[in-house]
Design a protein that fits this description.
The complex is a heterodimer of chains A (143) and B (182). Chain A is mostly helical and 143 residues long. Chain A is built from seven helices and three strands. Chain B has two domains: 98 residues, RNA polymerase sigma factor, region 2, helix turn helix motif (Rna Polymerase Sigma Factor, Chain: A, Orthogonal Bundle), CATH 1.10.1740; 66 residues, Winged helix-like DNA-binding domain superfamily/Winged helix DNA-binding domain (Arc Repressor Mutant, subunit A). The radius of gyration of chain B is 18 Å and the shape is globular.
Chain lengths: 143, 182
């Protein structure tokens, strides 16, 4: 026997018999994909939602629940039955230095930074430059 | 690479990527699982990594450029993922130190509970699984997957002459080992 590996395929095939990627495992992959797919939807609703959030913080700082009820009153239902997403978004906005937060009475109060206020002004004007700015922000925040 | 019924990849439509991944899993998940197993030598880890690999495929699908077959592409992702795992802190610090306890003499030949050698055919598998990973890799791809050296070179990003040398060296290692056993 010249090549000691001649029988390898046959040998391994036998060993791998019954060792397969189960349906449960496949479903777990599909599940993850589905949850990742719902993410790009962020793109579609964010422009209005983002403006609403920033707008609601213009006069005073608010905590998350307050923001969410206010959005609800404005008939902004992007976060309906998915309230957690709001906090993710708030967190991202904080990271982008659009918002800043302080803790008081065990609640986190969000308010606009100077940069955030500029965004609100930009949103109101809706010029081509501003809307590019906003789009950029949305894209960054969706990552 | 034998490729009957290659699926067509059309990523213009986001909804159908899920279907594509489903199809890829139906076609190749067992192959990928076996490939991963030869790297990590543990059944559960192989299953976990295979799961991650198909998620990675989903994320990278838009980067598939049709220059290779989809199977080659999936394999490349799989191999890179395995190597990342073997390089990871978790593997080097946790798993390897657990492994040391396996080196008590009576257990030294045993890699995975499922892989206890029962007959001659199995002992060949065992011998291959005991080779250092750089030899195990080329032996598996060449003899089990029956890939050409050029394809192996492409999916492992290793020079073709290096692959030839490793195959030769692997044959020597195996022959020596078998001589010892006889």
């Amino acid at each position: 026997m010249d090549d000691p590996f001649d029988n390898l395929k046959h040998s391994m095939k036998k060993d791998f018999e019954g060792f397969s990627f189960s349906e449960e495992r496949k479903n777990a992959v599909k599940e993850t994909i589905r949850s990742k797919q719902s993410h790009p939807e962020l793109h579609s609703w964010k422009e209005e939602t983002l403006i609403s959030i920033l707008d609601s913080l213009q006069d005073a700082s608010k905590h998350g629940y307050d923001i969410s009820t206010q959005l609800f009153r404005k008939n902004e239902r992007s976060f309906e039955s998915n309230e957690g997403q709001l906090y993710t978004l708030l967190h991202l906005l904080e990271n982008k230095k659009i918002l800043t937060s302080t803790w008081s009475d065990d609640r986190k109060y969000y308010s606009l930074t100077t940069k955030g206020k500029k965004y609100v002004v930009a949103c109101k004007h809706r010029g081509p430059q501003q809307s590019a700015l906003l789009k950029n922000l949305i894209e960054e925040a969706s990552l | 690479m034998a490729e009957q019924g290659e699926i067509t990849i059309n990523v213009t439509n986001i909804e159908n990527t899920e279907q594509i991944i489903g199809q890829l899993m139906d076609d190749y998940s067992d192959d990928v699982l076996h490939l991963v197993f030869t790297y990590v030598r543990n059944q559960t880890t192989a299953e976990d990594l295979t799961q991650e690999i198909f998620i990675k495929c989903y994320e990278k699908l838009d980067q598939f450029n049709h220059q290779s077959s989809i199977k080659t592409w999936v394999y490349r992702i799989a191999i890179n993922h395995c190597k990342d795992y073997l390089r990871s802190w978790h593997y080097r610090k946790i798993i390897v130190s657990e492994r040391i306890s396996d080196y008590i003499p009576s257990k030294s030949k045993m890699i995975d509970e499922e892989f206890i050698s029962k007959n001659i055919a199995n002992s060949l598998t065992n011998a291959v699984m005991n080779l250092p990973v750089k030899y195990r890799e080329v032996v598996f791809l060449h003899y089990y997957e029956e890939l050409s050296l050029a394809t192996i070179s492409r999916i492992t990003a290793v020079n073709i002459n290096t692959i030839k040398t490793r195959l030769k060296r692997a044959r020597e290692l195996l022959k020596n080992q078998m001589k010892k056993e006889v």
